[in-house]
Design brief:
Spore germination protein, about 550 residues, alpha+beta
């Protein structure tokens, strides 16, 4: 148990003793060392049923926070029974509370028949409140969990427990086109920061009762809602069990984005290659669920996590499946080529100009030698310096406001490149190589795969200046060994290439025609493999023989 929790618990025990002597509240909810990290489960009965006492206790627990709204009302037509409706300003819907809750409870003769009932909460829940999503809360733990999630709480004097009423509201971002996964063809809607909005966007695409959602609350302070989504009967049960295990073992004070979850459940931490995919496109998530993967949706994050994943998946775009297979294949090959250029482009230039001049035409050798005649630095220093400057410009463009950032990154690169050439610090050929390398890195659909190339680029430049092409080959072999050693929830990262799985090779770098991909990837789904009927290849209608003089 953390030291500050022990200190707070001891202070709370001292307060409880003082309150017992003064006849005050019997117990004070404090932070416990349970896995939920919320207020220790204390039934309302142990605190008594007095409404004022419970309101005082709630104010004390929340520090009398200004956003806690308490409506003290009288139930029944004769205003016979005190009650309170409690909500959080900004998380609730004031109009719904006023029209569908307060007006129904205050001065309503329907409640008179239930005032003396032992099951008054059940009666009000079933016969009086006309709002869906009403349930009982019988301890402080449940009360604060519901209240701080945007629900309203109804407490009645003399009745232990309360009702949680669905009045969730507040400001939410509208559904917009994803900013990080731009496509030429396909849906234009993207995820928001609302978990329920995100799950509904997936539900709209998969109208199947076998799409199951399991809820978790992670974060001992934030109590963040996390949803595990999968299609029962398609997803691998062993992978799902491992996912539940990893989610349940997370013990942290806060989850503010899905990136927290990603870093805490991935297979291998010491690698710059992502072993969990994330997307803000509902169609991408739906397609991955249909292949047997699972998705993790986090409240407050527009990025949904997907696993298991393979390396080649990061070179695939959503619109690959909305266009012809030959066009999609050409684009995928172009992306892989762009990744290789961004990975070893400067290293190849350094190796050629330093060790292997015989590999380039003699006219180009003379041209490069003439350019480098006045350059005071070796090629590797030029390359590293220009790459660092380019990365600084790229990072500055990301952090500045979008209109200004784009201008800074484009104009800055032009101005600095031209100034460096005129000052004799770098050669024009080096500016060209670095520019092509930077542009090639933008062709990779996944931002984090592109980052891996940007980082390993410096390693390959060091190997190139030390060993030439032999160093680049050694680096590529080491990189291939590292990639084949990675796993994503037990699935080989380089599959279906290494190990080679022929049945799964129809959707890798080369995308087969849609009508020929009748089976799901066996890497992710061990059952219900068939996803479409065979023999769906489009065929022209058969032409009937036309006799002389007849109309066709």
């Amino acid at each position: 148990m953390p030291y500050w929790w022990k200190k707070q618990r001891n202070a709370a025990k001292t307060d409880n003793k003082n309150e017992k002597k003064s006849g005050g509240v019997q117990k004070t909810p404090v932070r416990g060392d349970d896995t939920s990290g919320t207020v220790t489960d204390i039934p309302f009965l142990t605190m008594g049923t007095d409404l004022k006492t419970r309101i005082q206790q709630l104010k004390k627990t929340t520090g009398n926070s200004s956003d806690i709204v308490i409506h003290q009302i009288m139930l029944g037509s004769g205003n016979d029974l005190p009650a309170a409706v409690i909500s959080v300003d900004g998380l609730d819907d004031p109009k719904m509370i006023n029209e569908n809750l307060l007006e129904v409870l205050m001065g309503n003769p329907e409640i008179d028949g239930y005032l003396g009932s032992e099951n008054i909460l059940d009666s009000i829940m079933k016969h009086v409140i006309k709002i869906g999503g009403v349930k009982k809360v019988m301890n402080w733990n449940d009360l604060f969990s519901e209240l701080l999630s945007g629900q309203s709480i109804l407490l009645i004097d003399g009745v232990y427990g309360g009702l949680s009423i669905s009045t969730r509201g507040g400001q939410q971002r509208e559904i917009e086109e994803p900013a990080t996964e731009v496509t030429v063809r396909g849906p234009r809607d993207g995820f928001t920061e609302s978990l329920r909005v995100n799950t509904s966007l997936i539900r709209k695409r998969i109208k199947d009762p076998n799409l199951w959602i399991e809820n978790f609350k992670i974060g001992e302070v934030t109590r963040t809602d996390v949803a595990l989504m999968y299609i029962k009967g398609i997803a691998n049960d062993k992978v799902l069990e491992e996912a539940r295990k990893r989610l349940n073992t997370i013990k942290i004070d806060a989850i503010l984005d899905s990136g927290y979850i990603e870093q805490l459940i991935e297979d291998k931490t010491y690698t710059i290659f992502p072993t969990i995919h994330h997307s803000e496109r509902p169609d991408v998530v739906a397609a991955n669920l249909l292949e047997g993967r699972f998705a993790i949706v986090v409240e407050g994050s527009p990025f949904v996590l997907l696993a298991p994943v393979v390396f080649i998946q990061f070179f695939q775009s959503a619109d690959d499946y909305y266009t012809r297979f030959d066009i999609a294949t050409a684009l995928r090959l172009l992306r892989v080529l762009s990744y290789l250029i961004s990975l070893v482009g400067p290293a190849v230039y350094v190796a050629v100009t330093t060790f292997h001049q015989e590999l380039i035409p003699i006219q180009l050798v003379f041209a490069l030698a003439a350019q480098r005649e006045t350059i005071p630095f070796p090629a590797v220093v030029e390359a590293i310096g220009m790459e660092i400057v380019f990365e600084i410009l790229r990072e500055a463009g990301l952090r500045l406001p979008r209109p200004i950032g784009q201008t800074v990154s484009i104009v800055g690169a032009l101005v600095i490149g031209q100034a460096a050439v005129q000052a004799g610090l770098v050669s024009p050929a080096m500016v060209f190589v670095v520019s092509i390398t930077g542009i090639a890195s933008f062709a990779t659909p996944s931002f984090f795969i592109a980052i891996s190339a940007r980082l390993y680029r410096f390693v390959f430049m060091f190997l190139a200046v030390t060993f030439g092409f032999y160093g680049i080959i050694i680096g590529m072999i080491a990189l291939a060994v590292h990639l084949t050693s990675l796993r994503s929830f037990g699935v080989p990262y380089m599959a279906p290439i290494a190990p080679f799985i022929r049945s799964n090779s129809r959707d890798t770098v080369i995308r087969a025609p849609l009508w020929s991909m009748s089976a799901r990837p066996r890497l992710f789904s061990q059952k219900n493999i068939i996803r479409q009927a065979e023999n769906q290849k489009p065929m022209p209608p058969k032409q009937k023989s036309v006799k002389n003089g007849e109309q066709p």
